[in-house]
Amino acid sequence: QWHIVESGGGLVHPGGSLRLSCEVSGLTLDTYAIGWFRQAPGKEREGVSCINSRGTITHYPEHVKGRFTISRDVHKNAVYLEMNGLKPEDAGDYYCAALWWPSGSDCSYVVHEYGYWGQGTPVTVSS
C-alpha cells in the first residue's frame, strides 16, 4: 500500500517563502521520479518541478525557475519544495506525485504521466 502525503502549505505574504514536504511510503525514491504540481481555482493542474530517481536531475518551468528548489532525503523517503519569492499567482493546491522511472535517466513534470498522487496542501499568497 502506498501513500503520498504533502504538508507545509499555508498563508504567506507576497515575496515570502514556504517549504513543502512530501512524505512517501510504499514507493521508494530510487525507482520513482517525483514531481510537484499545483492547481489554482478554475485552472488546470500544472507541473512546477521534478526530480529523477537518482536525485541528480531536476527540472522547472521558466516561471518558477530560480525561485523554487526541489530536493529529497532518501533516508526519510521524502521530497521537498522550497519556494521563495512567492507571488499571488503561485497560489493554489500543491500536489506531490510519483512516476515509475527506475533508470533515473530524466524526470518530467507532465501531469498525465504521473499515476500516484497525494491529496495536496494549499498555498495562499496574499497581503
Walk me through what this model shows:
- There is one protein chain.
- With 127 residues, this protein is mostly beta strands.
- Helix content is 0%, strand content 47%.
- Strand 7 (68-73) and strand 8 (78-83) form a beta hairpin.
- The chain is globular, with a radius of gyration of 13 Å.
List the helices and strands and how they pair.
Layout: E1 3-7, E2 10-12, E3 18-25, E4 32-39, E5 46-51, E6 58-59, E7 68-73, E8 78-83, E9 92-100, E10 116-117, E11 121-125
Parallel strand pairs: 2-11
Antiparallel strand pairs: 1-3, 3-8, 4-5, 4-9, 5-6, 7-8, 9-10, 9-11
Could you provide a short overview of the structure?
This protein is an all-beta fold and 127 residues long. It has strands at 3-7, 10-12, 18-25, 32-39, 46-51, 58-59, 68-73, 78-83, 92-100, 116-117, 121-125.
Q: Which percent range fits the helix content?
A: under 10%
How many helix segments?
0
**Gyration radius over CA:** 13 Å
Strand content: over 45%
Distance between the termini: 41 Å
- The count of β-strands is 11
Shape: globular
Please state the structural category: mainly beta
Average pLDDT metric: 97
Unreliable spans: none
Main sheet specs:
7 strands, mixed
What is the H/E string? EEEEEEEEEEE
